[in-house]
Amino acid sequence: MERWGINLSEVEQLGESLAEFWGYFGQWTCTKTRDTSQYGFCYLSGLLRMESKRNYAQIGRQTEVPVQNMHHFMSNSPWSGPLLISKVQEEIGQQDEFQSGSVLLLDESADDKSGGRSVGAGRQHNGRRGKVDNCQVGVFLSYANNGYHTWVDGEVFIPEHWFNEEAAPQREQAGIPEERHFQTKPELGWQMVQRVQERELPFEAVAFDTLYGRSAWLRDQLTAAGLEYYADVPVDTKVYLARPVIGIPQNKRGPKAKKQRVLSPKGIRVDRLRHDPDTLWQTITLRPSERGFLRADFARRRVWTVRDDLTVVQEWLLIRRDGKRHTYTLSNAPTDIPLVTMAQRKSQRYFIERSNQEAKSELGWDEFQATKLLAWEHQLALTILASWFITHTRLDWAHRFEQDPDLVAEYEVEILPRLSMANVRTMLLAAMPLPQLSSQEAAYLVVKHLDNRTRSRKSRLTSGSSP
User: Fold this and answer.
1) Per-residue pLDDT tens for 322-380?
2) Rounded distance, CA 295 to CA 344, Å?
3) Contact 88, 94 (CB under 8 A)
4) pTM (2 decimals)?
5) Coarse DSSP helix, strand, coil percentages of the chain, rounded to the nearest 5 percent
6) Which of 454, 406, 438 is nearest to 2 (CA)?
7) Is residue 40 a contact partner of residue 21, using CB atoms and an 8 Å limit?
8) How far apart are CA 57 and CA 445, in angstroms?
9) Distances, alpha carbon 420 to alpha carbons 9, 45, 324, 381, 392, in Å
10) In this structure, what DSSP letter does residue 367 have?
């Protein structure tokens, strides 16, 4: 075990490490009148140790907290999720490993919802399913450096129809503040980037996919703030290889033109440039992977883009080629930046997908069920905290317990894998085993379930509705 950088005594003390970790962060879940932070510790430990059904009732049962108390702590207690998140960001920003080379990653993730009561739920685009569906969408900010990654912020996207006058009762039920107004996903993303910047979390660039990349407004906001971006754009995005001339066309026939437009040169789709003889390709090693090292081909061109108001902006067009697959990215990186640096920063976007997936598969984000905005913010804060505990443990152990370099030769590989989130969770479960149900407790839960079903059926029959 020690050859793999795993110290048995540290594994046995993981429960104590989690308690010490919560000893600091738990203070931000106290209110002015009550200290119910022990419920937060139980909830956090439930997210980290349980494999499924991570809802209020099941986490309360597994951690011996009354369901009503757990529900109140998560849905009604006035502790601030955003404040807890800010404290996590402060600690992340103090880590030596993140002082250089870190990248912010912006993306969204949708979760299916059967009704429209949950805050922000409704028929909208579900990227995971690739279609319009009834779902709830969160916009998330992840933080990545050298293979380590963790969520650092998030906002629930509330569709515009939620802010109609007739939706006022729905907003009140979900606890949406009166001052809140409709914001697009790029606006929510920019709001989070600003918060991270104000808290001085060190990062060198921001990367995002085409939904956000096609927003010239977001790219302009980042440029104005002096932030470097890598914005994926659709294949039909039009660019210019020379500075466009803007003016009013002089028509020889017909009505005199009154509106300005691009006079010359002719624009070109970004996907056409991959075949251009002046587009020069270079193979770049990106990072270690399960199959050795991940490599891809990259090329770049200086191009001009035109905003809706006909403002002309010069940007980099970075093209990545993986076999027959190509992605196109606009960037405001400096003109003298090495291609390898651009390739590395752009390719960090992979880790937001990992962060989103691990939040669901390892921490139960997609099992969360609640209607209120406050509950969503609390769930986000504790999920971010759980993710950071795992990442912090991985960093700490990698620093203190080195893997035996001879293992590389023994296995005939180029590099050894690091501990994953699932690995740390497995060891935490050994250190803090979940209680096993007795026969009496199991029978009690079944009777309670049957009782609830019977009462629900009686209620439906009394109201005259069909089963």
Assistant:
1) 999 999 999 999 999 999 999 999 999 999 999 999 999 999 999 998 899 999 999 99
2) 11
3) no
4) 0.91
5) 45, 20, 35
6) 406
7) no
8) 11
9) 19, 18, 30, 21, 12
10) G
